[in-house]
Design a protein that fits this description.
single chain, 141 residues, mainly beta, ten-stranded antiparallel sheet, 9% helix
């Protein structure tokens, strides 16, 4: 169950967002598209290790829709599944997004200055740490 929920939370972009969008984001942006460049798995029994996104059921594309308070999956094999966002907090430099599943909690921090992103999914037995880049979706719906 935990891995199924993980795939709903962190479906990440294949875009090279930093090259496409020079600006990371501002207070008016309602949607962010994110891609992951690195994933790690950490447990209390062993050091953190690099893992493939498929191993932890994390898809390559995630869209954070702040207006709908939802994470929208947009992976090739995924058909628009959504996960609810429990909370959003903005600081002058960061966007903090968080939520929870049946047996886990997760959060993402997006830098509004350069678009860098860190995220994690915490369960009772492991933590998955994700690193990547996000950009505001500048296309109208």
């Amino acid at each position: 169950m935990r891995r199924t929920i993980c795939s709903l939370k962190f479906c990440l972009a294949l875009l090279a967002a930093s090259a496409v969008f020079p600006q990371a984001g501002n207070a008016e942006d309602k949607t962010y598209i994110c891609s992951i460049s690195d994933a790690r798995e950490c447990t209390s029994e062993a050091d953190c290790k690099a893992v493939e996104l498929e191993e932890i059921l994390v898809a390559p594309l995630i869209i954070y829709d702040l207006e709908k308070k939802a994470i929208v999956s947009a992976a090739m094999r995924d058909h628009g599944r959504e996960e609810k966002i429990a909370g959003i907090h903005r600081t002058p430099s960061d966007l903090i997004i968080y939520g929870h599943g049946d047996d886990e909690v997760w959060n993402t921090i997006i830098s509004l200055k350069d678009g860098t992103m860190t995220g994690n999914i915490n369960s009772g037995d492991a933590t998955h740490i994700l690193f990547g880049h996000c950009a505001p979706n500048i296309y109208p719906r």
